[in-house]
Q: What sequence folds into this?
C-alpha cells in the first residue's frame, strides 16, 4: 500500500556527509562515578513512580495502583494525554531534582515545551508535593489525592493534557508549540540567581518561534541576568513521522547548535540502536547537568569578577531517548516503543480489547509501584524523598508570586503644555480662524519615549523594552538616552541594556511573556502592520491569563496566595495612516481585531488621539495588572488637543465630547462626528471646521473615543458605556459619522445591539494603499475630512431643513474637492513632499 | 551619552570559541582565472550602471544622469528606498546574469528577501529590459523610460520601495520580512529544471519564518523537483544595530548553516577589514555561483541516474559585503559605508544641505554613468549587453504565466448517498421521530480526504498538500493511500510524495505560496486554532494578489499577458467545537476574522454544514483562481443533511432554507434559526426538533449559511445577498437566532447596515473552554440547542400569542435542562466518554 508508513524504530539516520572534525564540537565527560549507588536508587525510583503515575493518568479511573487485574471498567472511557514524550520529561524532572538536592542554593524554574506531556510533569509535581501545596483539598499527598489526580486527568474539572496556568511552576501555555524557549529566556533576564531550564521538544523545534529563539543567549548579560539551560529532547517522532532533528545525526546536531553558539553535550545511551555503548544514561544525564551548572557558574563568575568571556558558549543538552521509553515494546507485531506509534496513546483499545488490556496491565505492573508508594498510606519510598529538593521547581515564587510594581513617574512632567481650549471656546462660534495653527504639535511616540526614559531611570532592573528593530524609526529613541540596546557579542555593548531589539516578533513576545510572568513589566513597541505576526502567541498568553485568574495560587479572586502579574503591553505605531512612504505591505491594522476577540476581562485597546492622552494611557497600562493592553498611536507630530488635565479626564472616561471643536460645545447637534484614532480624529476635527465654513447652519458635535471598548453594548466589556450614557453621547440629531482607524467591521461588530445603530455610518481602513501622500491614504480609504463632511451633511439633512436646502450644493463642493485632490496628485504626485495634508483646497 | 551608539565599521566580531576544525566545513575554491577580462568588464559595468540607477531612484527627480551640477530642485522632496542593501543585490543580480549568459539552458527564478531593496532589483530589471517588456509605455528602454523609472520611484503611481507584484519576476510581497526562503522552495517543487535563487537578508534571517525554513531542502526530491540556491547576504546591520549574523564570525556561520545541511561557501573579500586578503570578490562570486550550479547538477544527476546521495549537501552562499557598499564613505566624521548609517538614505538632507548635495554629486559621478548609458540615446554599453541572458530572470514565465489547472474529478463520485429529505418532509409535521437517526453520518474531512486522494491520482505533478503534522489527526489520511509524506533524509522515503508535513505553519504557507504563484495548486489543512500563526503571511499574500490584478502582466482585467494563479486554499478542522479533549489552548476560531478583513474581491470563507457540502466546496476552491479560500469543517462524523444534488445547489447559493427541518418547509415562520458551521448547525436542527415537541405552535424556519459572506450587506462582497433576498430569507417573524461557529462579533460586523438587524441575536465562540465533553463546549459558549430554543421562544413570543402563553413554562423547562446537564457533568464528568451529545435530557 503506497500510503503505509513503515513504523520506524528509534532513529538510526544515514550518516551525514559532514567531516568527522565536527565531532570536536561535542562536550565529552567521564561518566564513571557520576552517580553514587544511593543517588542511582533515588533517581531510578523517582522516575519509576513518575512514569507509573503518568501512564495511570492516561489510562486508569479505578484500581489506580493496579493492585487487581485490570477490568474494562478500570479503564477511562476516553484516553487522553500523549505518552510518547512523558518518560523523557520525567527523566529530566528526576535528574533536575537530584541536581537541586545536591545544590540547594540553586533556584530553578522549569519551562516545558513538548505538547500534551502534562502527565509526566504533573506526576513529578505530585511526587515532590507541589500539587498538594496548591490544591490541598483536591490533591492531598494521600492515596485519595493520587486517585483524584489520576482519575480526574483530562476529564471535566481535572488537569488538561498540556501544561497551563493550572500547573504549579509553569509560566507558559503549552498547547501551541514553539514558545517555551523564548519564554524561558525572558524569565532569566534581570534575575541573576535564576537557573531557567527549558525542555524543547524535537517536534516543537521545527517551529519558527523556536528556530529563531536559539539565538537568545546573545541577549543574556551574565552579570545581571540568570542563565538558561536548554534541553532539546529528541525522541525522533511527531504524530506520525520523523521530526527534523530525528533525521539528523549527531554531527549535524552538533554543528547546528554549536553554530547557534552553545557548548553542546549529547546525552544518549538507551534504546535498541544507541550509539553510546556504555548505555548508562542515568549517569550521563546526572554528569551532564552537573557539568552544565558548573559551566554556567564559571561563565557568570568570570563576568561578575570583571573578566567577561567574549562569546561565552553557554551549555545546552541534547537528550536522546526513545519515544514512549519504557512503554510496551510492541503490539501485534507493530513496534511501539521508539516509534511514532507511541506518540499518543500506545494501547488505544485497552478498555475493550482484552489483549491490549493485558499488555497494559503487564506494562503498569512492571513499574512495581507498590515498592514506591505505600498502597495503604500513600507514603513515598525514602529513596524518592531523598531527592526532593528544598527549593522545588513547582513552588518557585518567581512563577506565581513575584510582581514588583514599577515606580512610575508622573506623566505630567513630560506632558505638553500650552493647550488652551478656553481660547478656542471663545472663538469657536466665530470663524475658527487659526484653530489648528495655534495648537502645540507633538508626536505621540516622542512624548511616550520621553516618559519611558524616566521609567527606565527609576526602574533599572524591573522594566524592559522588547522591540523588532524599529525603536528609532518608531520615535522612541529618547529611551536610548537612558539606556542602550543589549547585544552581548557586539563588542560595544556595555551589558544590562534595557532594550532588546531583534527582528523576530516571536522572540520579543516570548521574552516579554517570560519577563512579565516572573514579576516584572515590559513594553513591546512595533510597527502596526507587523504585530499580527504574534497574534496566536497573544491569544495563548491570554488563555493562560484567564486560567491563572481561576486557580487557587496565582492571585486571582479565589486564590489563597500569589500575585497577579503586570499586564503585557503593546505599543503600535507607524500606523497605516502614516505608512504612505513604505507602501501597501506596511499598511495593516489587523492586530486590533485579535485583541477584540480576547476575553473582555483581559482585553484593552486604546487609541489616544494626541500626545497627552498617549502619556496618560502609557502610565495607566504600565501600572495595570493581568491585562493585554494595546495602544495605537502616531509617531508623526500631530496637534495636541487636550491639556494634561483634560487628557487625564478624557482617558479616564474613555470618550467624551470635544466642546472646542463642536458647535456651541456640542449641544443639540444635527450630527455627531466620532473619531477613533489619531489621524482619523484629526480629519473629524478638520471636517467640523470645514462644515462650519460651508454650512454654518449645521450643528456638529465632535466626539473622540480613546478607549475602543466603550462603544460595545452595555455589559459586553467592563469599560462599555451604559445604554443611557451611550444614547446621551451619540444618539443625537440625524446620525453618527464614525471615522475609525481600524477595519470598520470591528466597530460595526461592537455596536451590534446598541440602540440607534441604524443611524451610524462607520468608515475605516479599507485595505487600500500604496506609496503615496498621507492625505491620499485617507482619501483612498474614505476617512478624509471630505468624506466625513459629506456623510455629516447627509445625516444632518434629515433633521435640519436649512442644511437640507444646501445639501446638494455642499456635497457637490466636497466631491469636487476630492476630485481636485486626486487630479492634483496624479499630475504633481512625483513632486510632493508628502506632508500630512498636502495641499488642502 | 549613554544612549549614543558607536557607528560600527564593517563587522569584525570577536573570534568565537569554536575550534578551528569547524573551518573544515568551508567550501574552498581556486579563484585564479575564475573571471575572464571580458566578463570582468561586463560585470563591473552592469553593476556600476545598476548601482547608479538605484542611487538615482532614491535621490533624483531631474538631471537623472547627473550631467549638470546637482541643484536642490534636482533632488526629490522625500527620499525613500534603502540604499544599504542595494549594492549587494545588484552585485548578485549582475553575477547571476553572467552565470545565465554562460549557461543559457538554465531557467532561474529570483526571490529577494531584504526589505526596501527594490531600487537595486528594479535598476537591474530595467537594464535587462524586463521592465520595458511589461511596461512598454511608461518605462521604455530609452532615456525617457529611465527618467520615468528614476523620477517615479516611491512616488504615487511609481514602484514602491520593496519588491511586490508590480516587480517583474517576483512571486513574493517583500515588505514584511522572513518569507522569501520558503517561497523560493515552494517554487522549486515539481519543477525539475528550475533554479530557484533566493537572497535572504541578514536582518530577515532573524525572523522565525526564515530560521525554520533553512531546513526546507529536506523536502526537495532531486529527481522530480528543482533546486534552491540560497544566498545569505550579510552586511552586518539592521536599521541601527548589528544583525545577529553580523555578530557571528565565519566559524559560527559555517557551523550553523552546515548544521542545517548545506555545503557552505563564504563569499567575501571587500571592505576595510576584509578577512580575504585577495579581495577579488568579483572572481569569488563568479566562481562560487559556477560551483553552486555544478554541485546542484551533480546532486540532481546522481539522483536522476538512480544513484541518489544520502543527505546531499545542497550549496549555499554567504555573501559578505559592506552595508551601503560603494556609497559615500563618511559625512561629518560619521562613517557611512559599512555602518548602519547607510542602512536607509545615507545623505538625508541632500536637498537642503549643500555639503550633502556635493557629497551626493561626487558619489553619483563616481559611477561615470555616461560611459555605461549613452546620455543622448539611452543605449547601453556593449559590455553590459553581453551578460544579459536569453532567459532573463525578470521574464521567466513561471513567475507570471504558468498556471496548470487541476484535472478535477467529480466530487459526486465520493459523495454520500442515501440522504432522503423527502421522507423527512412527510414526517416533519408529525413527530419527527428518528429524524437524525436515519441520516447517514460522515466526517467532512474523511469525505474530503477521499476526494483529495482522487485529485492526487489525477494530478501527480501539480497538486500538493502542506500540513503541520496533523494530516492523520485531521482525518485526511486517505491521501496517504495515493501518495506519501515527503521527507528526504528519512531512509524510507520514496521521493516525490505529495504531502509535506512539518511543524511550522510558516514553512507550509511559504511553500504553498511559492508553489501556487508558479502555476500549481495547493491545500493547507490545519488545526483551526493554529492557522492564525500565519495570519500576517496571508495578509501579505493577499496584498500581492490585489496588486497582481492591477498590473499589466499577471492576467488581471487590464493585463496584456499572464495568467491568474490558482487560489491559495486553507482547510481548517479540529475546530474548537470538537477540541473538547485537547483543551482550551486548542480552541480558537480567530483565523476566520483575518480572512474577513482581506479585500472582498479575494476573500472567501466557507463553513460547509455536512460532508456533501464540504465536497462541493473543496472542488470549487481547487478550481478557483486568485482567491484566498478558507474552508472550516468538522473531522468527526456528523449527519449528512443534503443529498449531493441538494448540496450542490445549496453551495452555489451559499445559503438556503432547510425545509426538512423547518415547520411546513419554513413558510411563514415565527422565528428563523440560522446555523453557520457544522456543530452549531447541528444544534440548530436539534433545537427546531426540540421546539416542535415542546411548543408545536411555534413555526420555525431553519436556514444554513455555508458561504459566510452572503450575510454582509449588499455590495460589500460579490457573494452578499441582495437586500431583497436577505429580507426574504431572514427578516421573517419575531427575530433571527443565529448560531455561528466563530466569534459573534464577526457576523455582527457583517450584518451592520442590513435591515432588521435589531431583531437578530447572534451567538458564537465566547472564548470559553476546557477539557470537557463536546456538548459542554456548546453549553459553555451558549450555542447549544437549549440556548437556541430559549432565544427562539423569546422571539416567537413577539408574534405568536400561543407561544407567548407558554413562553415562561418552556423557557423554564429549557433552563432546567441546561442546569441538569451541568449538574450531571459535575457529578459524572470523569466517567463520560465524551460523545457529542452525551446525554441529552
A:
Amino acid at each position: 500500500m503506497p500510503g503505509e508508513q513503515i513504523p520506524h524504530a528509534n532513529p538510526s539516520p544515514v550518516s551525514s556527509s559532514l567531516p568527522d572534525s565536527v565531532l570536536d564540537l561535542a562536550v565529552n565527560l567521564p561518566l564513571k562515578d557520576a552517580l553514587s549507588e544511593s543517588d542511582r536508587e533515588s533517581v531510578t525510583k523517582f522516575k519509576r513512580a513518575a512514569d507509573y503515575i503518568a501512564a495511570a493518568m492516561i489510562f486508569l479511573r479505578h484500581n489506580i495502583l493496579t493492585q487487581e487485574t485490570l477490568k474494562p471498567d478500570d479503564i477511562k472511557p476516553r484516553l487522553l494525554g500523549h505518552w510518547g514524550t512523558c518518560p523523557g520529561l520525567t527523566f529530566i524532572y528526576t535528574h533536575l531534582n537530584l541536581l537541586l538536592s545536591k545544590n540547594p542554593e540553586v533556584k530553578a524554574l522549569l519551562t516545558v515545551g513538548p505538547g500534551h506531556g502534562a502527565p509526566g510533569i504533573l506526576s513529578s509535581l505530585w511526587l515532590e508535593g507541589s500539587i498538594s501545596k496548591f490544591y490541598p483539598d483536591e490533591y492531598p499527598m494521600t492515596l485519595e489525592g493520587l486517585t483524584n489526580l489520576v482519575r480526574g486527568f483530562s476529564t471535566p474539572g481535572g488537569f488538561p493534557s498540556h501544561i497551563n496556568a493550572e500547573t504549579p511552576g509553569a509560566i507558559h501555555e503549552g498547547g501551541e508549540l514553539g514558545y517555551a524557549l523564548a519564554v524561558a529566556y525572558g524569565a532569566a533576564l534581570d534575575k541573576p540567581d535564576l537557573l531557567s531550564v527549558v525542555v524543547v521538544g524535537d517536534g516543537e523545534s521545527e517551529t519558527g518561534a523556536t528556530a529563531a529563539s536559539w539565538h537568545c543567549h546573545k541577549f543574556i548579560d551574565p552579570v545581571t541576568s540568570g542563565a538558561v539551560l536548554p534541553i532539546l529532547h529528541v525522541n525522533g517522532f511527531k504524530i506520525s513521522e520523523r521530526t527534523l532533528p530525528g533525521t539528523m545525526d549527531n554531527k549535524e546536531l552538533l554543528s547546528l547548535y554549536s553554530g547557534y553558539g552553545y557548548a553542546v553535550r549529547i546525552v544518549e545511551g538507551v534504546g535498541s540502536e544507541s550509539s553510546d555503548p556504555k548505555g548508562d544514561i542515568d549517569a550521563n544525564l546526572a554528569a551532564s547537568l552537573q557539568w552544565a551548572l558548573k559551566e554556567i557558574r564559571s561563565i557568570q563568575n568570570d563576568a561578575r569578577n570583571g573578566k567577561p568571556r567574549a562569546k561565552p558558549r553557554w551549555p545546552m543538552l541534547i537528550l536522546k531517548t526513545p519515544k514512549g521509553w519504557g512503554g510496551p515494546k510492541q503490539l501485534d507485531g507493530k513496534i511501539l516503543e521508539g516509534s511514532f506509534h507511541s506518540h499518543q496513546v500506545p494501547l488505544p483499545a485497552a478498555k475493550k480489547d482484552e489483549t491490549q488490556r493485558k499488555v497494559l496491565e503487564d506494562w503498569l505492573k512492571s513499574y512495581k509501584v507498590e515498592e514506591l508508594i505505600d498502597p495503604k498510606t500513600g507514603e513515598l519510598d525514602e529513596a524518592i524523598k531523598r531527592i526532593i529538593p528544598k527549593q522545588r521547581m513547582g513552588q518557585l515564587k518567581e512563577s506565581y508570586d513575584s510582581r514588583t510594581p514599577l515606580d512610575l513617574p508622573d506623566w505630567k512632567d513630560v506632558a505638553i503644555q500650552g493647550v488652551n481650549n478656553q481660547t478656542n471656546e471663545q472663538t469657536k462660534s466665530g470663524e475658527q480662524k487659526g484653530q489648528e495653527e495655534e495648537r502645540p504639535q507633538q508626536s505621540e511616540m516622542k512624548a511616550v519615549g520621553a516618559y519611558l526614559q524616566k521609567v527606565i531611570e527609576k526602574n533599572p532592573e524591573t522594566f524592559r523594552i522588547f522591540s523588532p528593530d524599529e525603536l528609532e524609526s518608531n520615535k522612541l529613541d529618547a529611551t536610548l538616552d537612558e539606556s542602550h540596546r543589549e547585544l552581548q557579542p557586539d563588542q560595544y555593548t556595555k551589558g544590562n541594556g534595557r532594550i532588546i531589539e531583534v527582528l523576530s516578533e516571536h522572540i520579543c513576545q516570548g521574552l516579554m511573556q517570560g519577563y512579565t510572568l516572573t514579576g516584572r513589566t515590559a513594553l513591546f513597541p512595533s510597527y502596526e502592520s507587523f504585530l499580527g505576526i504574534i497574534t496566536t502567541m497573544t491569544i495563548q498568553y491570554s488563555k493562560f491569563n484567564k486560567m491563572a485568574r481561576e486557580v487557587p495560587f496565582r492571585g486571582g479572586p479565589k486564590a489563597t496566595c500569589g500575585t497577579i502579574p503586570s499586564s503585557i503591553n503593546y505599543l503600535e505605531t507607524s500606523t497605516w495612516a502614516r505608512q504612505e512612504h513604505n507602501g501597501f505591505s506596511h499598511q495593516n491594522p489587523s492586530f486590533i481585531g485579535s485583541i477584540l476577540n480576547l476575553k473582555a476581562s483581559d482585553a484593552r485597546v486604546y487609541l489616544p488621539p494626541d500626545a497627552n492622552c498617549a502619556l496618560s494611557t502609557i502610565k495607566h497600562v504600565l501600572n495595570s495588572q493581568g491585562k493585554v493592553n494595546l495602544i495605537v498611536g502616531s509617531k508623526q507630530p500631530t496637534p495636541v488637543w487636550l491639556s494634561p488635565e483634560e487628557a487625564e479626564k478624557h482617558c479616564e472616561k474613555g470618550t467624551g465630547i470635544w466642546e472646542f471643536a463642536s458647535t456651541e460645545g456640542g449641544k443639540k447637534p444635527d450630527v455627531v462626528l466620532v473619531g477613533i484614532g489619531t489621524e482619523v480624529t484629526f480629519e473629524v476635527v478638520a471636517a467640523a471646521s470645514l462644515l462650519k465654513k460651508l454650512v454654518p447652519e449645521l450643528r456638529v458635535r465632535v466626539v473622540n473615543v480613546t478607549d475602543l471598548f466603550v462603544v460595545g453594548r452595555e455589559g459586553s466589556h467592563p469599560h462599555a458605556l451604559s445604554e443611557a450614557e451611550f444614547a446621551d453621547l451619540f444618539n443625537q440629531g440625524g446620525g453618527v459619522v464614525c471615522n475609525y482607524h481600524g477595519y470598520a467591521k470591528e466597530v460595526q461588530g461592537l455596536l451590534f445591539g446598541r440602540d440607534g445603530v441604524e443611524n451610524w455610518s462607520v468608515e475605516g481602513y479599507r485595505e487600500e494603499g500604496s506609496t503615496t501622500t498621507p492625505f491620499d491614504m485617507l482619501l483612498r480609504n474614505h476617512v478624509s475630512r471630505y468624506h466625513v463632511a459629506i456623510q455629516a451633511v447627509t445625516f444632518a439633512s434629515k433633521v435640519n431643513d436649512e442644511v437640507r436646502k444646501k445639501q446638494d450644493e455642499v456635497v457637490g463642493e466636497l466631491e469636487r474637492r476630492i476630485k481636485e485632490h486626486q487630479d492634483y496628485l496624479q499630475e504633481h504626485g512625483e513632486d510632493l513632499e508628502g506632508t500630512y495634508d498636502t495641499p488642502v483646497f
